[in-house]
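Late entry, written up from scratch paper. The run itself happened at the end of the previous shift, but nothing got recorded in the book at the time, so transcribing now.
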Amino acid sequence: MKWLVTGAAGMLGRDTVAALARRGEDVTGLDRTALDLTHADAVAQALADHRPDLVVNCAAYTAVDDAETDEAAALRVNGEGPGILARACAARGARLVHVSTDYVFPGDAHAPYPEDHPTGPRTAYGRTKRAGEHAVLAELPGTSAIVRTAWLYGVHGRSFVRTMIGLEATRDTVDVVDDQHGQPTWSADVADRIADLGPRLGPQAHGVFHATSGGEATWYELAREIFAGLGADPERVRPVSSAAFRRPAPRPAYSVLAHGRWREAGLPDPRDWRAALRAALPLIREETRRETP
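Output as recorded:
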């Protein structure tokens, strides 16, 4: 198969291209300077040039707080762009994996959200991502997958894990929110999930999938695990409420996602977040050292 990955310069895009390349797949990655999804002619030309069998859309407007005051810009990238891409895929007979987010849910649950749970975003960012989901499923109902993820960190790009590595080295104590629950997720694991799912897309595997790590944690619990993994005292991390960090876009109190659809597709459940963090942390730490002058 020939794969085309959009948003290929981002954290997940880079990992997806790398995961497919390791498997010997024929993969092309295009960043936003090479392909703007909001221009239909450019999208059609890219698919004509590269003739992919399967497209993975990792391109997104991810500035959650900025979207509150510029929802139109976020909607162009997160809502209209995926629709344009899906129509182009339909015209050429290509399948599509579109990456989405836990922010499509209201974040007020008390048990993991199953894939078919009704959405109800409380932020502009979440509304624009839900629009993208609807557009993809409308254009490619039987040959697309929506892959929702959350709390991403990776070797490349900014993330909470990288921030904690920096703060551990420069501060005696760190205050971290302890009333938001989610699933810390290594982007490399999501990339592998996408690589596994893509060839299965069709009558037996399509629709919505949740690609987060297993288990759940608060940001405070994640920070303590990071400190421990760095050989630092976890007691240096202090719990605080969300009120200590006011943000323009409200953060979900509970956005844990269920993983039932993977078993239906013949794939195992994702590994626990702690196991993933233990594998990722040395690689992230080494990368931050290389980047430090």
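The mean pLDDT is 97.
(Scratch paper discarded after transcription.)
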